[in-house]
Amino acid sequence: MSEPLLPGATLGILGGGQLGRMFTIAARTMGYRVIVLDPDSLSPAGQMADLHLQADYLDHGALRQLGEACAAVTTEFENVPADSLIELAQHCRVSPGAEAVAIVQDRSREKTWLAQQGFPTAPFALVNDGADIPAACARTGLPALLKVARLGYDGKGQIRVDSVAAAQAAYAELGGQPCVLEGWVALEREVSVVLGRDDAGRCALFPVAENRHANGILDVSIVPARIEARVAEAACAMARAVADQLGYVGVMAVEFFITQAGDLLVNEIAPRPHNSGHYTLDACVTDQFEQQVRMLAGLPAGDTRLLSPVVMVNILGDRWHNGGPHWQRLLGHGNVKLHLYGKQAARPGRKMGHFNVLAAEPAAALALAEELRGAL
Ligand code: AMP
User: Fold this and answer.
1) Kind and range of the H or E element at 14?
2) Residue 148 in 3-state DSSP?
3) Same domain, 215 and 353
4) Ligand 1: which of 145, 150, 189 to mutate, judged by most atoms within 8 Å of the beta carbon?
5) Is the same domain home to 163 and 200?
6) Are 14 and 40 in contact (CB under 8 A)?
7) How far is CA 339 from CA 114, 147, 279, 282, 304, in A?
8) Which residues line ligand 1 (CB under 6 A)?
9) Structure pTM?
């Protein structure tokens, strides 16, 4: 893109969840107008936008309206139909492109693509029919995880299996839809890298985050990650190579497993800012949402430098029983930054917000984060 889009221009986003909300806040802070397309009348991003188009992601009229009103459009989730991105691209600049999104929104395509490009992954096999299961188990070994190829998130649509018979039952339980069987990996740690990549292929990487999950959902991110420098460098190099080989433009994340044997495996790619990058909101010169705005607008990447050790803790809807979270316990600390997403209904497992704990010493940030995680 030759001329960058400057404040005053209108940016659009497909999807109105918390990621879209934080994009919208960043863009409006910088003086852009924002239009959100999301079917939900209560969408967290819609509340913050100049205009909320309440329509389905496949609604041709709404897509045309969005494309004509915006100079550029991005997305906040991978399940946006790739066809909608193609349709929008007839009217305005769109990033990321439909091709990259189409690969990563389907776990079968994503895993196959990663393997073809030579990236290390957990052993996997595609399961498109119950009859595929014995050979798939032989290939991945047992135990293994059966994961739906499409629309799974936060550990949903995944079942751990210990035998061929259990895999067959799990496949039926998941509705007989296309799945990927993945060998169970003995994990030492999980880490992720969020990066922004521009039209010219320049990449700006945020520091590696160390991630702890609970019930398949991200619970805590610790930055800097407690890993050797050479492992962090290898993760960054691999994340950059994934972005390059996808020809990706925009902000994306690569999640990695570090095995107990010390190997680095690519777990997943997210074509958008990522929950494990929320620490950047308070701890980096530029946060991942400003970076998304910058990449979309064709501006140079912002400085990704870490200003302070930080620990991010997710706040799930589970905490709303018994009168809700004890906010004063968090807000009584001057080094704790609370972010709530404006969601009305608190359901178990639903991401309602997060907080970042900043401290001069990483161990102090972690200790306070863990204390508050328990006390909330
Ligand atoms: P996913 O949605 O595929 O990222 O899985 C959610 C979480 O489940 C991961 O972050 C891991 O903690 C765990 N997990 C997923 N796949 C595997 C695997 N093959 N082996 C061990 N743990 C896994």
Assistant:
1) strand 10-14
2) strand
3) yes
4) 145
5) no
6) no
7) 34, 31, 11, 10, 20
8) 122, 145, 147, 155, 182, 184-185, 187, 190, 213, 216, 255, 267-268
9) 0.97
- Do the domain assignments include residue 144? yes
For residue range 217-272, list pLDDT tens digits in order.
Answer: 999 999 999 999 999 999 999 999 999 999 999 999 999 999 999 999 999 999 99
Taking the C-alpha atoms of residue 299 and residue 167, their distance in angstroms, rounded to an integer, is: 48
- Residue 171 shares a structural domain with residue 191: no
What tokens were used for 227? 């890993």
- For the CA of 153, the closest atom of ligand 1 is 2
Q: In the structure encoding, which two tokens stand for residue 304, read together?
A: 């990704």
Distance CA 201, CA 199 (A): 5
Write the DSSP symbol of residue 247.
T
Instruction: List pLDDT tens digits, range 119-169.
Output: 999 999 999 999 999 999 999 999 999 999 998 777 789 999 999 999 999
Which residues face 218 on adjacent strands?
A: 213
Are 340 and 269 in the same domain?
yes
Is residue 250 a contact partner of residue 196, using CB atoms and an 8 Å limit?
yes
Q: How far apart are CA 134 and CA 347, in angstroms?
A: 37
Domain span at 62: 10-94
β 351-358/336-340 pair status = antiparallel
Judgement on whether residues 361 and 230 belong to the same structural domain of the protein: yes
pLDDT tens by residue, 31-78: 999 999 999 999 999 999 999 999 999 999 999 999 999 999 999 988
Domain tally, the chain? 3
* pLDDT score, position 373: 95
The reply to whether 220 and 277 lie within a common domain is yes
Cα distance between residue 335 and residue 19, in whole Å:
23
